[in-house]
Design goal:
The structure holds 2 protein chains of 2 kinds. By secondary structure, chain A is an alpha+beta fold. Helices cover 49% and strands 16% of the residues of chain A. In chain A, a hairpin with a 2-residue loop joins strand 8 (265-266) and strand 9. In chain B, the strands form 2 sheets. Chain B has a 4-stranded mixed β-sheet with strand order 1-4-5-8. Chain B has a 4-stranded antiparallel β-sheet with strand order 2-3-7-6. Chain B is 51% helix and 14% strand. Chain B is built from 13 helices and 8 strands. In chain B, helix 5 (88-97) packs across helix 8 and helix 10 (327-352) runs antiparallel to helix 13 (380-392). Chain B is globular and about 75 Å long. Chain B has a domain at 111-239: Beta Barrel (Butyryl-CoA Dehydrogenase, subunit A, domain 2). Chain B is of the alpha+beta class. Classes of the chains: A alpha+beta, B alpha+beta.
């Protein structure tokens, strides 16, 4: 039965996250962007809300709630409305947890999941993207070769969130033409974490380039064991997560520029009284809503275990364009003020540009 | 609980409507495009007996199933769908603002007897989107209203005018000095003296649907044919009930137009994908943009535009089915669907080249048919204006 109404539980989560985004993230996001640092206290506070542990089964110490991509999309939008850098940092452990939860072996679940159920932020991440043009997640240049009960990883990765602090990483590599995940523990020989990257946007998120040189991991560390993982589904989960975040960023830009346009007076009336401005805002509102609903649909398909490849990839492309248009319009509506760092729209514009390049940097 | 699963009943409705569209409608779509104003009597009688009569006002589109049925019908042919018997937009207005007495009196007939049509007359030679500028007058004379004025662009107006049991909902002012507050709607029965069918328009597309001008000259109708209250209060805030009711009718009808638009868009999209498949071109979902061909990117853009518009349409309809306000959402869905359909149908002609431009195929027709959805029941721009005013919380004075 068609319904566009989130459940009561979901509405409570959204309210809670919105509060957090308003009271905490929005207070410091500019400072974080300028300094490149996110205070540990805000990360821990978000951790305490249980985004990561909620779907971990009780036997591993989690809340044992059903994993829901729809719920995760709702909260990802709200967090990203607060700030994208912080969101990606806060949710970075899910890059590790969700694949293990959905596709890990029993041993992998028992070994790794309990660490996510403590009081402190458990730094983990995943490495998918590679530093070259024409990146294709289903044809990676990083390779994994099986040798004597081990896998040998070779290649390089980029845009890996919080890699320097991560105790374990899920590294995606090409094994005989297929993308598979490999758990690499901190300090493994042959894993080199380079200096922190400098990016156009999401500047408060620490991302790193990684190099693998004959990096040897035990065969037990292959996600899903010998049979491996269904990487395509993980990509779809990522497409949905990133699209939800794109909606959050676009909504932030929309709301700010809408409020600005109502108070900024030109020629004796608010600039929003001119159709040239008002129609830009109307278009933003329409496209944001459309993208959100498409996100929900693709997330719902994931929850129903349907193949969401078509929906999720159409969605991701649409969301990438939408967030760029929306954040660009927001800068345009503020005019010269939009270009000044006193206003947040230039920050959202820089963050918004990232989505077309992000792949696998978030997951639901 | 967010859910996108259609019920078995809805799936059944879609399936049946699709079969009808494919088997009965598509084969004659071109003929009635090229023979404008010729009556597709066989189809009309068949659909009436087979489906439409049994569904009565359930067809008006106040639920998900009804609207998806309309999408399928327009996938078959938008013009022929609009020529279908039924209470049409007039019925939507009666459902929105009629008393239960009036609903029984005017709507019961649409599930009985011979095929019948309902229509709505809003636009005039001097006013289109600015419906508050209506010049047609309704003057009370004892227990009658006397209507005078000219209405144009009445979808299905001729069929409602010509066929027994037809009715037309006419918007008129009872007090020009009261502005919007004076605007009321009236049900005029087929065969009422003083009503004249003036003209049938020749159109770019949806040619199987008639678009009529009707002149009212001292046209007398019973007093109880007014929909809603006859009161015209002074300029206080509650005074524009009549106008707001007209606009509320649009809240109900705009998602229906969006569904019609989507039917045409999907017809084009399906055709393009089938042709590409025949040529061995596969659309590779999930492949990075940089590795896609231009045609794959185009098709994906068309598909996502369709999907975006469809989601907005479904939400607007769902809200309506829950009796929740949907004015913003229905205008959003109409604006988006009109744009998306123009884009998709035009792109389809471009992509298919000679197959697109030739009248041998239906793509060029769908491009012509699709365009109407960006125009009737409020142009794309008027819908953008409604959306803009809502999100800004601006009155029509604050945002012109």
């Amino acid at each position: 039965m068609i319904s566009f109404s989130p459940s009561e539980d979901q509405q409570m989560i959204v309210t809670m996250v919105k509060q957090f985004a308003t009271d905490e993230m929005r207070k410091i996001y500019r400072h974080c962007d300028e300094s490149g640092e996110i205070p540990a206290q805000i990360i821990d506070k978000a951790w305490g809300m249980g985004f990561i542990s909620s779907a971990i089964p009780e036997k591993y110490g989690g809340a044992g709630e059903e994993h829901s991509a729809v719920t995760a999309s709702l909260l990802a939008e709200e967090l990203a409305w607060g700030d994208l850098s912080m969101t990606m940092h806060i949710l970075s452990p899910s890059l590790f947890v969700v694949p293990v939860l959905l596709m890990g072996t029993e041993e992998q679940k028992a070994k790794y999941l309990p660490a996510f159920c403590g009081n402190k932020f458990h730094s983990t991440t995943a490495a998918l993207m590679e530093p070259h043009f024409n990146f294709d997640a289903s044809a990676l240049t990083t390779t994994a070769e099986r040798k004597n009960g081990h896998y040998i990883l070779n290649g390089s990765k980029c845009f890996v969130p919080i890699a320097a602090d991560a105790s374990s990483l899920l590294v995606y590599a090409n094994e005989g033409g297929k993308t598979q995940g490999f758990i690499v523990e901190k300090g493994t020989a042959g894993l080199k974490i380079s200096e922190r990257e400098k990016n156009m946007g999401i500047k408060a998120l620490a991302t790193y380039e990684l190099a693998f040189q004959n990096c040897k991991v035990p065969k037990e560390n292959k996600l899903g064991g010998d049979k491996g993982c269904d990487f395509n589904t993980l990509m779809n989960c990522s497409r949905v997560a990133l699209s939800a975040m794109a909606v959050g960023v676009a909504r932030a830009a929309f709301e700010y520029s809408r409020d600005y346009a109502k108070t900024r007076i030109a020629f004796g009336e608010p600039i929003a009284s001119r159709q040239a401005i008002a129609f830009m805002l109307a278009e933003m509102a329409i496209e944001i809503d459309a993208t959100r609903l498409m996100t929900w649909e693709a997330a719902w398909m994931l929850d129903k275990k349907k193949d969401a490849t078509k929906e999720a990839s159409l969605l991701k492309n649409y969301a990438d364009d939408m967030v760029m248009v929306a954040t660009d319009r927001a800068v345009q509506i503020l005019g010269g003020h939009g270009y000044i760092r006193e206003h947040p729209v230039e920050l959202w514009f820089r963050n918004g540009r990232g989505f077309t390049t992000f792949d696998g940097m978030a997951i639901v | 609980m967010i859910d996108f699963e259609l019920t078995p009943e809805e799936l059944q409705v879609i399936k049946a409507a699709h079969e009808e569209a494919e088997k009965l409608v598509r084969p004659i779509a071109r003929y009635y495009d090229e023979h404008e104003h010729e009556e597709p009597s066989e189809l009309i009688n068949r659909l009436w007996e087979q489906t439409l009569k049994g569904q009565g006002t359930g067809l008006i589109g106040l639920g998900v199933g009804a609207v998806l049925r309309i999408e399928e019908a327009c996938w078959g042919d938008a013009g022929l769908m609009l020529a279908n018997p039924g209470s049409g937009l007039g019925g939507a207005a009666i459902l929105q603002s009629g008393t239960s007495d009036q609903q029984a009196r005017f709507l019961t007939r649409f599930s009985q007897g011979t095929p019948k049509w309902g229509a709505m007359a809003m636009t005039e030679p001097g006013c289109g989107s600015d419906t508050s500028a209506i010049q047609t007058t309704a003057v009370r004379d004892g227990n009658e209203w006397v209507l005078n004025g000219e209405k144009i662009f009445i979808t299905g107006g001729a069929r409602a005018f010509n066929n027994p049991g037809g009715l037309i909902v006419v918007w008129a002012t009872v007090d020009k000095s009261a502005g919007r507050a004076g605007m009321k709607s009236f049900v005029v029965e087929q065969g009422t003296p003083g009503m004249r069918l003036e003209k049938l328009e020749k159109k770019l597309g949806i040619r199987a649907s008639d678009t009529a001008s009707i002149v009212f000259e001292n046209c007398r109708i019973p007093y109880e044919n007014i929909l809603g209250s006859p009161e015209v209060r002074s300029t206080d805030s509650g005074s524009t009930a009549g106008f707001r009711r007209a606009m509320a009718t649009f809240d109900a009808t705009r998602p229906i137009i969006a569904a019609m638009a989507l039917g045409v868009a999907r017809a084009s999209l399906d055709f393009v994908k089938e042709e590409l498949e025949k040529q061995g071109v596969k659309i590779r979902y999930g492949v990075p943009k940089t590795k896609l061909t231009a045609i794959e990117r185009d098709v994906m853009d068309m598909e996502s535009a369709y999907k975006a518009a469809k989601m907005l349409m479904m939400r607007a309809v769902w809200l309506m089915s829950q009796f929740k306000p949907n004015s913003l959402e229905s205008s959003m869905s109409k604006a988006k669907a009109g744009l998306a359909t123009s884009y998709i149908t035009q792109k389809a002609v471009e992509l298919m080249g000679p197959l697109g431009y030739s009248r041998k195929w239906l793509l060029e027709k769908w491009m012509r048919d699709g365009k109407i959805n960006d125009i009737f029941e409020g142009t794309g721009q008027i819908n953008m204006l409604v959306v803009a005013r809502r999100i800004l919380e601006f009155s029509s004075r604050e945002l012109k």
